[in-house]
Amino acid sequence: xxxxxxxxxxxxxxxxxxxxxxxxxxxxxxxxxxxxxxxxxxxxxxxxxxxxxxxxxxxxxxxxxxxxxxxxxxxxxxxxxxxxxxxxxxxxxxxxxxxxxxxxxxxxx
Amino acid sequence: xxxxxxxxxxxxxxxxxxxxxxxxxxxxxxxxxxxxxxxxxxxxxxxxxxxxxxxxxxxxxxxxxxxxxxxxxxxxxxxxxxxxxxxxxxxxxxxxxxxxxxxxxxxxxxxxxx
Lengths: 109, 114
Prior knowledge:
The complex is a heterodimer. Chain A is an all-beta fold. Helix content of chain A is 0%, strand content 57%. Chain B is mostly beta strands. Chain B is globular. The termini of chain B are far apart. Chain A binds chain B through residues 4, 8, 30-31, 33, 41-45, 48, 50, 87, 89, 91, 95-102, and chain B through 40-45, 48, 58, 90, 97-100, 102-108.
């Protein structure tokens, strides 16, 4: 079967760094997406990885290891506005997104 | 308008009633999708459309139907609502369904079936 695993909830301190992990098992693989979703709002695109390695985009970076079926999202210099759920989604061989349940990130001052 | 709009924002519906959720995009995207989001679960695909005039079933299609008469609109119909269809419904679109294009989401419809 197809499956995405990510932690349910994480807590971090304003100004710190946090890493949100995601493991995936899919029928074929065409890349890994990260989305941010604030409470009561729509998911918004953060990053896409298809090759192994780290992609940096400002305070946010995303890493992929295809051989391990593993990705992480790294958030630096945390701000209160980063309090949100972070959704990991893998694109399978049919180009359909398989979604994780999301990681709720709580930022404390 | 810019992006994707959904209507209504929220709705309370009696079981057994028929309901259509509306979705319109102005990005001229070929592909459109309907998801439901439930607490503790990932987004689940209900139906999708690769291009105007075609539709397909997703992971949880039972009890739902869609149509794609034109590029911009992709309504989702619940023929006879049941309480298990209480959820937040998101419409999304992407330039193409057969490559790695990013999906963009509408603001969602919160539906409660009593």
